[in-house]
Amino acid sequence: MKLLVESAATQGVIFVAIGALTNIAAALYHHPDLKSKVKEIVIMGGSINGDWELNFWSDRPAADFVLALDIKKTVIPMESCLDVHFTKENARSIAKWHPGKWIASMEGILFRHAWLMEKANAFIFPNNQSERKGFHPWDILAIAAVTHP
């Protein structure tokens, strides 16, 4: 929470929540003066259909508190991520899109994650009930909402 409070010390901060809203709720509850300094809260969480979703349901009171705040919010519900798949092929070509040492190091991590999810899908969705290849880049989409709106 201390980092959130310090980050919001300047006007116009944007919080990107890619997990439970506990820390953001606590910071804004205990330091209500920060509300005027928060430009926007981007939230990866919730469900259009009201289905169970980990980020909201792991701390429902915090989610309710943050959603009720009079601060601009962009909510990326889980359904908006289900059509996006990050595959092994995407991982292999990512360094071509954005050259640099950091991206090159991420290529292997993303490839292994995509490979693992491809293998796990057979157990998660028996009898080929899913067309999913690779993994859903939930958190990456939340950050993209800020960096590439």
Describe this structure in words.
The chain is mainly alpha-helical. The chain has 2 domains: 2-81, no CATH class; 88-133, no CATH class. It is built from 7 helices and 3 strands, in the order H-E-H-E-H-H-E-H-H-H. It has helices at 2-7, 22-30, 54-57, 60-68, 88-97, 101-124, 138-147; strands at 13-17, 38-44, 73-76. The protein has a 3-stranded parallel beta sheet, covered by helices on one side. Helix 2 (22-30) links the parallel strand 1 and strand 2 (38-44). Helix 2 packs across helix 4 and helix 5 (88-97) runs antiparallel to helix 6. The radius of gyration is 18 Å and the shape is globular. It starts with a helix and ends with a helix. The mean pLDDT is 81.
For this entry, give a set of tags.
149 residues; mainly alpha; 2 domains; 7 helices; 48% helix; globular
Using DSSP, what is the number of strands?
A: 3
Structural class given helices, strands, pairing?
A: mainly alpha
Q: Percent helix among the residues?
A: 40-55%
Oligomer: single chain
Q: What are the secondary-structure elements, in order, as H or E?
A: HEHEHHEHHH
**SS strand fraction:** 5-15%
Question: What is the 3D form?
Answer: globular
Order of neighbouring strands in the sheet with most strands: 1-2-3
Query: Major sheet: size, sense and barrel closure?
Result: 3 strands, parallel
Could you give the distance between the termini?
Answer: 27 Å
Number of domains: 2
Instruction: Give the overall average pLDDT.
Output: 81
Poorly predicted spans? none
Radius of gyration: 18 Å
Number of helices: 7
